[in-house]
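Z., the sequence and structure:
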Amino acid sequence: IDLDTARQELEEFIPHVKNISDSSIKKMAGRDLTRFKEFKKQGIAVKFGRFTEKENKQIQKNVEEFLSLTGIDSAEKLLFTWRYPEDKDTIHRLKTEHHFCEKISEGIPRPWRLIYYRARKMFDPNNYKGRYTDEEKEKLKKYQALHGNDWKKISELMSRSNLSVAMKFSEIKSAVNYGPWTKEETQKLMNAVKEVMRRKLKTENPSSLSSLEQSDTDLWIDREKLHQQLPWSEIETKVGSRYWRQCKQKWNSILTSKLTKGQQLYRGTNGLQAKINLIKRLYETKAEDASEVNWDELSTAIGDVPRAYVQAKFYRLKVSCVPLWKRKTFSEIIDYLYEKKLPELEEKL
């Protein structure tokens, strides 16, 4: 089936099809069109939006049946194959031989890619457990009053991860400032980061502390160390007026500025080139999901910057350039940027 015909036929089922990239249309023509036509015969419309309980159960059934058919021993291996490099080739072969795309989407009137995403969300053992209920928030406050900041103990009582309960408590315990950062707040943040890093270095390698002691200038900044995870709930407490996520975002902007010596990477010609490089590199990864992207490696596409900076720039790019981006999957967004936006940016450059 040629591209124009595929687009025309899909338009009957997906009203926003004109905003979908050519490569995504080709995939949908192969994976979805026949199914959509079958559902039409049964009087069933193609759906978008929140998955129903019935659809979730059907996905669960489809995954379990596929595991039983192929002998793959877990849903995680099936849906997050890259986590198991030693089994990767065998799993890919089994998925191809037994028509994974068709099997996983059986009985569900939705685009294949959305079903795949939903399955991954359902079966990822590392996934969060959803929003906290009001009852859980009250429990969290009570447990913190009883056990202090013993997040390991509290996480066991609440059946959530240590990080989740610590971060949620920091979010609900007090009001925070949402205005621009003052010089005093910024300095508090810098001091807090310096303090936790000093302690970390002292524990890991006492001899490396000498550069921290030598001067109060930026000698203490070591790129490799600064890219490591920091205890944000502790830093939040030291800053006092900001929520942990604000502290993290502000620190990333400070870090970016220092690493790039204050250059405005996303201005003028540099900005255009950075966007072009980012789109090309993302397209080359052939990633189906954001979790498959090595953002640290990708940061070299823009410059010597933290991964959070690159992720923020990608977010702005998709929001400002991709119509109906919320309805698109990660790979559809990348395809659209590559096919529609990239030529515009190159011409502008």
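The CA atoms of residues 188 and 206 lie 25 Å apart. The two ends are 36 Å apart (CA to CA).

Let me know what you think.
H.
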